Predict the structure of N-(2-amino-2-carboxyethyl)-L-glutamate synthase.
Amino acid sequence: MDIQQLSRLSSHELCQLIHKIGHTPIQPLDCVVERHAHRIHLKLEGENPTGSMKDRTGYSLIMDIENRGLIQPGQTVIESTSGNLGVALAFLCKAKGYQFVAVIDPKTTQENSTKMQMLGATLEKVQTPDQNGGYLLTRLARVQQYCQQADYVWTNQYQNPANMRIHYMQTGPEIYEQMKGKVDVIFVPVSTGGSLAGIASFFREVSPSTKIIGVDAHGSVIFGTPAGTRKLTGIGSSQPSSFIHKGLYNDYIQVTDEEAFAMCRILQTYTNIIVGGSSGAVIAACMRYLTTVPDSGNIVCICADRGSNYESTIFNDEWIQEHHFHLPSDNFYHFSDTLSPPIITTRYDHRFMSEAQIS
Ligand SMILES: Cc1ncc(COP(=O)(O)O)c(C=O)c1O
């Protein structure tokens, strides 16, 4: 359902749509990396009602403040968000009769800002970057100011255990069932770390041999690496995650803006799959991993949102040029000059598979 249709629904109809959160499909994607053929599995979270995995998180956060008796209809929910959680909370608040203030920043896409507004949210945009190259710390400071001034309820996606709980209770088990219990590696994009922590906690219990690989943005400090600027949204953070600890992941891979954007555009061009920047990062990380660990078994890549959120950015040639991104223009995806290029194909299109001379 597109945002126009969503914004026309009554509270009652929106409440019914809440039951459609989750149960997202898994799409197989065939690829050839270093002459080895692989089938990886994309968990398409963009199929959630507002187009991202954050519908699950938003639902869990709202249920939490309701269960703790912190909110009544007519009161205001506030959250710091670079976009997707804001859209999810705008939807949920409209359904349940709460006001919603989203503290966003200049990286929030036009698409997501429009969606939030159409769903009745008030937007408060911060302008000053924080010392770690992002806007998170500035957004959080603004949330604190608001909460001091008025009786707002902050869902606090960064520390509220309800964030990771839903992925432990719902996303992890869903993947396990869909893959019939056979999952060797899962690539998970990380920002607050709620989805990684929830999915990993579940798999550590039911399938301890499953490897969990966190996928982060270059310039993010989540895994203790140096801060830097980045254009990727949804993934990466200016502060460490309060949910993730070393026992929950086997490794992490950092992806550049260009790697992620190029992967999104290549998928769009050569497959029928259109996903957002963090999904491009996850698939790029997976391809890179496969160059060094070709016998990786059954792989799941969490694709956190759909590509329609990025028509004005990742999929817009002018935006790419304006920001001086140099993306590969041919149909091969180059991770490194020293590696032969992986070739991507889907279940539906075996042209590239035959050209790849699989050994
Ligand atoms: C597109 C996208 N990918 C990945 C993530 C990371 O999820 P988490 O905050 O659970 O780490 C988010 C979170 O906002 C997102 O919107």
